[in-house]
Amino acid sequence: MVQPKNSDKGKIMNSKNLDLSKSKIQINRNTSLIIGILFFFLGIFDFCLNNFLGTNITSFLPRFINFFTPLIFGVIGLHFIRIEFSGIKILDSLNKNINPSNFNAVLSLCIIFLIIFALPPLLNWFIFDANIAGDTKEACTGGGACWVYIKVWFNRFMYGMYPNAEQWRINVTFIAVLGFMAAGFFTPAKFRNYLSLYYTLILPIISFILIYYLISGGSFGLEWVETGAWGGLSLTFIVAFFSLIFCFPIGMMLALGRRSDLPIVKYSSLSFIEFWRGVPLITVLFMSAVMFPMFLPDGTYVDKLIRVVVAITLFEAAYTAEVIRGGLQALPRGQYDAAKSLGMGYWKLHIFVILPQALKLVIPGIANTFLALVKDTPLIFVVGLLEVVGMLNLAKTNPKWLGFSMEGYVFAGIIFWIICYSMSKYLSLIHI
Asked: Which residue, among 157, 154, 177, 314, has the nearest Cα to 235 in the 3D structure?
């Protein structure tokens, strides 16, 4: 019978010891996880009892102590759960994001407790006690939100004072514009290099023609509707759309001009940027709507909506220029020297080498500027253009619907959140 060598015995013993240590680590990890979960949910349970049932499971302790017992239980639980490289993907992700330290554990618990405290009354007001059925103020008999108010005024919130019989023209226009915007995604590969020209030049022209002939009317047998009757969310989209399209190329030219070696170009761009950044937007809108027509020759008229779009465009172009300039300054000098060594001129260098890299660096900043532009559109209410928030301010003064402004502002907040969140996610995908 062959006896195992001493070295083989040692390997076997080491293997057994290793398996035993792994087993002990796994048992300790599972025990710590179970204890942590129990303490965490005990803290949540204690907080819920305190707030909703008025019961305190630690009432035998002094008041200044049992007030903090939910937080103490929760911190103890998160401390036991904080296992480094547990092998459980969800647990590791939670520990990394909300439970990396005791301080972050306290902050996370405070947020959780705040949500638990605020969510039930919010849901009661928003959904469970809300009134949806009916067409008059008298239908709102509960203690929750009166969504009847939104339902009755919904048409005005979307289209303003635009005639009801002609609102199909706005729908057709926006569907057509969205179709032309989506066409870029289906462009054949050989035409992809021309998409920038399409989105910055051709699409704005097409959109302007559609809006002028369909929404304004006056041609092809369509009734003329003055811009003073435009309003609601449709007007918000129109102002934001054209301002976004035009402010970006203007801002890009201003950013390049501010970095130019030509003194006239440099200081002209600098003066423009600093002037527009130094005045509030509400002042700019007031000047464009009230003061600017006074300087026009007799018989010359520029529509108020066009003046407002131009004012917002120039205002936001100054901020866009500074964001793009930050990207230009972030590029190393070697990029310029390498492009020049290939014989590239100024425009070719910037179009094919510098700007693509600079714009990629500042996409988050550009997104922030664009989101601010969309959220600034309600300011056009001060010059008499009733976009969605302007219509809300008009509706809340209606004698039949006094006292329901909260529902209107919640509705507007949800709309703007959806718009801004969609833009943010889209731009973040571009960034990736």
From this structure: 157
**Residue 130 — very low, low, confident or very high, per pLDDT cuts 50/70/90?**
confident
Query: Measured in whole angstroms, how far is the alpha carbon of residue 109 from the centre of its chain?
Result: 26
285 close to 379: Cβ distance less than 8 angstroms: yes
Give the pLDDT confidence of 344-393 residue by residue, as tens digits: 888 888 888 888 888 888 888 888 998 999 999 998 888 888 888 888 88
Provide the pLDDT for residue 432: 44
What element of type H or E holds 387?
strand 386-387
> How many angstroms separate the CA atoms of 317 and 246, rounded?
8
**How far from chain centre, in Å, is Cα 132?**
28
299 in helix, strand or coil?
coil
Q: What are 197's two structure tokens?
A: 């020209």
CB within 8 Å of 368: residues ≥ 6 apart: 323
Place of tokens 């449709």: 234
Specify whether the CB–CB gap between 216 and 173 falls below 8 A: no
* Residue 257 to residue 321: CA distance in whole angstroms: 9
